[in-house]
Structure formats: C-alpha cells, structure tokens
Design goal:
single chain; alpha/beta; Aminopeptidase; Aminopeptidase i, Domain 2; 12 helices; 20 strands; 27% helix; globular; aminopeptidase; Peptidase_M18
Length: 438
C-alpha cells in the first residue's frame, strides 16, 4: 500500500499538465516493455506485443495485443482523462497595472475559483519554437518553482467577503509575477519563455539552438506547487492537485503494466474531457476509433470484437461530505476508503447499465474489494465522463466507476489512501478475464 501511494504521489508531482502526464506515462510504459508507435507510420502489430501511441502529446493509448484472437475474445478496455480544471495563459497575456506585472488567464474547465487565491503557483506546459535552421519543434516546460500568486483582497476592503464572495475571472484572476520597475517597458512573456527554455532544457542540442525571441506560441497552465501528501491522523487521505483525473490514469497504467498477454487489453487517457471532449485527441474525437480500425481493419470483424468487449470509464466520484450531506441522495453517499464507486444516471450522463454494473460487482467480489454506488440527487444536475461519449463513438458496452473524493475541481482535492490500490486490483483482474459473459 505505502509503495503504491508513494508512486502515485510521485506521478502526480511529475504531471502538472496533460503533456507532462503523457510523457510520464510513456516513460513508464517504455520501462515496462511497451513499444512506441507513430500514427504516421505503417503498423505491424504482433500477438503478445505491447504498444503505445500518443496524440497532441496530451492523449495516450497503451495496448497489449493478446495471443487470443481479439475478434473472438474481445477487448478489455479502461479509459480516463489527462486534463484538470486550471488557469491557462492567454495569447497576449502581459498586463502592467499599478506597478505590477501580471498575466491574463482563461479558466479551463469547471474550476472552483476561490481556492486559487493565495496559492504558490508554478507554470508549465508546451512551448513551440523556431530554431536557427528554420525548424519548428515543441518542448515541454515547467518552471518547477512558485513564480506567481493571486492575492486575496483584504477583508478590511471587502467586509462582505465571508457572506458571499464572487469571483470575476476576467478581473480578479490575473496572477501577479513581479514588480514592474519604474517606467521600464513591460517584460515580453515569450522572451521569458525562451530564457527559461535555455535554462531548463538547454543541454539538448535542439533547445540550445533556440535563442530568445524564437518562441512562436505555447499551451501553458498555472498549477499549485504544493506537493501531494498523505494527510489525516492515520495518513488515511491523499491530498493533491489533479486527482481528477490523474489518479485514474495512474491506476489504469499500473493495472495494464501488470497485465498478461493472453487477452487484448487497452488503456486510453484522453485530453479535453473537462471542456467537452470535442477535439482530435478527446474522447469525442477519432483517436480510439482510428486505433481500433488499424487493429482490426475489417468492419465486420471489428464489430464482432466490440460486441465481446467492455470499456470501464474511470473517473472520480463524489464522496459524501460530512458538512454538506444534504447535497447527496441519502441512499447513495460513498465514503472515502470504502472502495470504488459505480456511477449511475438514468439520463446517460454515466454509461453504466445493470448488465455492466453487475459484471463489475462480480469482479470486485472475486478480488475481495468492497464496492459502492453513486446516484446524484434527483433535483440536481449530474456531471458526465468519457464513458457515454466513448460508448456512443465506438458502440461498446461501458460502465462508469471511480474512487470517491472531496473538493472535486478544486486546486487541491482529497481522496482515500486505500481506494486507488483497491480499484487497481479490480482493473488488474478485469484485464485478465479470459471471457466476458456476452
């Protein structure tokens, strides 16, 4: 348990953005014997082979080609997403106001905004550059230290702050990076990025050829630099940023790394779930469908394979909050550290059916893992996942599960320290099931 959670915390710390998460997953897959595929190359997949492919540097599919014909045995699939709500830097971000240098940001996804105030913020993402030879390339960048803060307004200047504080994302969220010196011209953000690239990745020949001024563009996100931690009187909780949904990515990755090669197993981790999944690398895009078409080119054989398959969409569930228990259905309040949660919604915001839920319960029983259920209050709106989207895109039986958490979409979330490993045991068993019951 301790080793599993230590590795989970290390994964979270190494993955401040979807780009970094995919790079970290790719490194672990390569160490586990997986071969990288390029979507632009011809593929020669062999039975027993282990492969992975990325798109946009922010989505990844890892696959074990089972020795049993997948047309007859089907696929064991799990899915998660790599992105989390955060603040993204705008294209022309420089703001100089009242003697301070700030950056304009957009809100990415449905973020809880109040927790972003008074945090030590780092900056990370992907930077696209032009080198001296006229070549365009991209580098991952992480300042790796606190470089900004969004200060709260003192209560003396806002006496009603505790009675109903609202946040204007345009005017209240630009982080403060530094004092502007006198009448000096505003600092160029792209020049700052070029300088940081030289410092952090300058040892690589390609990066060293990028002098200041050659940054073309970027996808950069602020993040909380506070390290993930085990907290609670008995270390029973995990406190970290991006638990939704990097925890699920890690669980799926560990389960797949430990899987055998008798049956075909797959993990897909898509970007852009928090903003609707409509992109080339999102769950509503063609990435997984294209992969399956290359795996089994014949449409009839592929349809037969999918009929014998199952997708488990893994995304965190809402644990019942002891201070806000009225926000839950009284019969469906998952507890942290009481096991993974089956997520159900009559309006297909989750893809679970009685059939797929029954199978998951059986899998949990076989590995002695407790299981819970979540249904949103009937008078509240329900969020969604990649589950229904993936089911609609490729026509596969699907269910939605996840570990219970508090503070979902906050800058720092909370999960149970026993639930992730429990879910990993279930997924590992799922990847080994020789025949699904349909």
């Amino acid at each position: 348990m301790d080793n599993f959670n230590d590795e989970l915390l290390a994964f979270l710390q190494a993955s401040p953005t979807p780009f970094h998460a995919v790079r970290t997953m790719a490194e672990r897959l390569q160490a586990g014997g997986f071969e990288r595929l390029n979507e632009g190359d011809a593929w020669q997949l062999r039975a027993g082979g282990r492969y992975y492919v990325t798109r946009n540097d922010s989505s990844i599919i890892a696959f074990i080609h089972g020795r049993d014909d997948p047309t007859n045995a089907g696929l064991r699939m799990a899915g998660a997403h790599t992105d989390s709500p955060c603040l993204k830097v705008k294209p022309n971000p420089e703001i100089q106001s009242q003697g301070y240098w700030q950056l304009g940001v957009e809100v990415y996804g449905g973020a809880l905004l109040n927790p972003w105030f008074d945090r030590d913020l780092g900056l990370a993402g992907r930077v696209t550059t032009l080198d001296k030879r006229g070549r365009i390339s991209s580098e991952l960048l992480d300042f790796g230290r606190p470089i900004a803060v969004i200060p709260s307004l003192a209560i003396h200047l806002d006496r009603d702050a505790n009675n109903g504080r609202t946040v204007n994302p345009q005017t209240h969220l630009p982080p403060v990076l530094m004092r502007a010196e006198g009448d000096a011209p505003a600092l160029s953000f792209k020049a700052l990025l070029a300088q940081e690239l030289r410092k952090t990745v300058g040892k690589a020949d390609k990066a060293a050829e990028n002098p200041a001024g050659t940054v073309l563009d970027y996808d950069l996100f602020f993040y909380d630099t506070q390290a993930p931690a085990l907290v609670g009187l008995h270390r029973e909780f995990i406190a970290a940023a991006r638990l939704d949904n990097l925890l699920s990515c890690y669980v799926g990755l560990q389960a797949l790394l430990g899987a055998g090669d008798a049956v075909s197993s797959l993990l897909v981790c898509n970007d852009h779930e928090e903003v609707g999944s409509v992109s080339a690398c999102g769950a509503q895009g063609p990435m997984l469908k294209s992969f399956l078409e290359r795996l089994v080119p014949a449409a009839e054989a592929r349809n037969r394979m999918l009929e014998r398959s199952l997708m488990i969409s893994v995304d965190n569930a809402h644990g019942v909050h002891p201070n806000f228990k009225d926000r839950h259905d009284s019969q469906h309040g998952p507890l942290l550290n009481d096991g993974p949660v089956i997520k159900v919604n009559a309006n297909q915001r989750y893809a679970t059916s009685g059939e797929t839920s029954g199978l998951f319960r059986h899998l949990c029983q076989q590995v002695d893992v407790a299981v819970q259920s979540f249904v949103v209050r009937t008078d509240l709106a329900c969020g969604s996942t990649i589950g229904p989207i993936t089911a609609a895109e490729i026509g596969v039986r699907t269910l939605d599960v996840g570990v219970p958490t508090f503070a979902m979409h906050s800058i720092r979330e909370l999960a149970g320290s026993r639930d992730a490993q429990a879910l990993c045991r279930v997924l590992g068993h799922f990847y080994a099931v020789p025949q699904l019951p349909w």
